[in-house]
Amino acid sequence: MSPPERDGRDGDAPGNTDPESHLGKTYSHGKPKIDNDKAHLQPTRWWFLSSVFPMVAGTLGPVASAFSICALVAPWRQKLVSEDPDEAIYVGDPVWLTAINAVQLAIALISNLFLLFNMARRIRFGIAQPITIVGWYFSAIVLVCLLCTGAGPLTEDLDFPKDDLIWSQSFYYGIWAAILYFIIATIMTITFWGALKGHYPKDFILTMSQRTLMLQTISLLLYLHVGALVFSKIEGWGYLDTVYWADVTLFTVGFGDFTPTTNLGRALMIPYAIVGIISLGLVIGSVRSLTMDGGKRRVLARMEEKRRRRTLRTITRRGNDDILEPIEDGADLPRELTDKSLSNEYERRKAEFALMRKIQAMTSTRRKWMALGISAMVWVVFWMVGAVVFMHAEKRWQDWSYFDSFYFCFIAWTTIGYGDFTPVSNAGKAFFVFWSLMALPTITVLISHAGDTVVKIIRDSTIRLGNVTILPGEEDFMASFKHLISRMTLGKFFHAHYDTETPLVVDSKRHHLQRLASVMEELNEDDLSEQEREEAEESEREEESELRGRPKHPRRESQASSFTAKVRRSLSKLRNAEHKLPTGADFHFLLISEIRAVAKHLKESKTHSYSFDEWAWYLKLIGEDEHNPQTHGKAKVKGTNQGSSDTTESANGEVSKWSWVGHRNPLMGSQGESEWILEKLVDRLQECLSAESRRQRKKHKEP
C-alpha cells in the first residue's frame, strides 16, 4: 500500500498543510498557537482568592447584616419569671448600647453596598475594598466589645437577682453577626492582598451565576424579615420568635412549636410559604450549581497537570521516556489496517493522545471523589458541631444529652421535623436560624456529589447485574459477565474489559510504543472518490493558472460548484487528516461548515470531547500536521508560566514543538475543546479571507 498523499502540491515540502500557500507573498500564514490558556500552570489558590472568596463574602455579608438587624430590634436582657424562657420579660438596654449598635449596623450596610457596587464595576477596586474591609472589621470589633459588656455593665444595677437574668435572642444574634463579619472581612483582606501582589487583576472575575446567588440571598433574607414582621403583628408573636418560625417554615422543617392560629395568618401563610420555598430552592440550586460547575474546569486543569507530571516522572524513572520521542524516519511509512505496532509518527501521536485521555479520565474520577469527600466532611462537621452547641444551649431547659442533640440535628437537617425535639432556649432558637442557613444547603451539595459517584456506581452495577441475569442487554452475555467480574475485582481479572464490555483493541507487544495506551480507536481509512480527487485537483490547477495570469478553461456552473456541492453533501467523508484540503472558496466554505458544526457542539449540555482523528482533522485545517514530526517534541515534566510560551516560535526562529502529554497541548487549560477549536477555526478563516482580500486588491492594481 502506497503512503497517503499529503496536502502539498508537487514541489511543496512534505507536510505542508496550508491550502492557501499558493498565494505566495500576498499571504504569510504562521504556525498556529497550539497551547491552551495557562490555568493548569497557575495554583488554584489564586483562583479561589479572586473568585470564590469574593462570592462567599458577597453572600455572607447580607446574612451577617440580617443577624445584626436581629441584634438591634430587641433588648439583650430578659428577666426570667418562670421556667419557660418564652415568658421572660425584656429589660431595656442602655441608650449608649443601642446607639453604638445602630452605628455599627449602618457601617456594615454601607460596606455591603460598596462591595456590591465594586462587583458591579460601579466603584473602583482600590476605593471599595478598603472601605468594605475596614467597615466589616469595625462592625465585628464593636459587636465583640458590646457583647463583652454582658460580663460587666449590663449585669449591674439590676432590680432583680442576677440568677433571674437571661440573655435574649438578640444577644446571641449579635454573636453570630460578629463571627460572620470577622470571617468575611478576613477573607476579603486576603483577596485584597493577592490583588496588590499582582497574582490576579484588581477586579472581581465573577460570573452571572455568582452575582445571581448574591442577589437571591439578599432577596430571600429580605423576604424572611418582612414576612416575620407581618406575621408577628398578626399572630402576636415576638419578632425574633417569628424569624425563627419563618426559617422553620421556609426550610419545610415544620416542628410545630409555632403555628398560625388566626384565619388571616393561615391564609397568608400559604402564599408566603410557596414563594419562600421557591426562593429558597433557587438559592440552594445556585449553591449546588456553583459548587458543581463553578471553576470546575480550572480546578480540573490544575489536577490534570499534576497527574500529567506524575505520569511522566513514572515513565522517566522506569527508563521508558524514549517512547515519547517523535519518530523522525517513520512519518511517511505505509500503514495497514491490521497494523497495531505504531510504527510511524501519526500512530505514536495517537497513542500519546490516548494516554492523555486516560490521564483526564483518572483525574476526573479523582476530582469527583474528592468533591464527595470534602462535602461529606463539611456535612459531618456541621452535624457534630451543631449537636454540641444545641446540647449546651438546651441543657438548662430540657437537659438534652449529646445523642438527643445529634438526633435533633439529623431530623432538622433532613427536614423530617417530627417535633419531638425542638429548641426552646433563646440561644437554641437563634443558633438554629444561623445553623440552618449555613448547614442545610450542604446536604443538597452532598447529594449532588453522591449522584456522580456512589449513586452512579449503584446504578451501573444494577444494570451490569441485570445484563447477566434477568434483564439481558444488547451486549454479548460473556462480554457483560467479564466486564462485571473485572469491575468487581478492580481490573485484576479480565483487565481488557474493565472500561468497556467490548474492548476495541487488545494489548499488543509488537512494538515498545504500544505501552503508551492499551486501547486505541480503529483507523478510519475512508477515502475520497476518484471523481472528487480529480475535481479537487482541477480546482487547484485553475487557482494556479489564475494567479499566474494564464487564461483558464471556462467551466460550466454545475462543474464549477460540483466540489462545493460534494463538500456540502459529504462533509463527514472529508474529515480525514490524510486527505488533501480544498483551496480558495471551497476551503473557505469548508471552514464555515466546520465552524457551524463546532458551534452546535458548544450548545450541547454536556461538554463535547473529540477523538484523535477529529483533532487531527481540525489541526490540519488550522495548519498543523499530525504526520509531520518537525513540530512535535518530547514532553517535559514541568511547564513554565512565562509569557514567552505564548509565542509559537522562539527568538531564534525555531518552530515551537509540542506533545499531547506536554504542558502546551490543547487539552490542557480551562478552555473547553469546542471553544478552542472554534476560536482557531475563526482565526484561520479570518486569515484566509484577509489574504484573499489582499490578493484581489493587488490583482486590480496590476495593469
TrEMBL record:
- Whether Transmembrane counts among this entry's keywords is yes
- Acidic residues bias: start-end ranges: 523-545
Keywords, in A-Z order: Ion channel, Ion transport, Membrane, Transmembrane, Transmembrane helix, Transport
Ranges of biased composition (kind: Polar residues): 639-653
Organism superkingdom: Eukaryota
Cellular localisation = Membrane
- Annotated region (Disordered), positions in chain: 1-34, 523-567, 629-654
Potassium channel domain segment(s): 220-289, 379-455
Per the record, where are the segments of Basic and acidic residues compositional bias? 1-12
Q: Name one GO molecular function term.
A: potassium ion leak channel activity
A Pfam family of this chain: Ion_trans_2
**Chain ranges passing through the membrane:** 46-74, 94-119, 131-152, 172-193, 213-231, 269-290, 369-393, 405-424, 431-451
**Membrane-topology annotation of the record:** Multi-pass membrane protein
Gene Ontology biological-process entries? stabilization of membrane potential
Q: Which InterPro entries match?
A: 2pore_dom_K_chnl, K_chnl_dom
Please tell me one Gene Ontology term that the record gives under cellular component: plasma membrane
Return the similarity comment. Answer: Belongs to the two pore domain potassium channel (TC 1.A.1.8) family.
Name recorded for this polypeptide: K+ channel
Give the originating organism.
Trichoderma parareesei
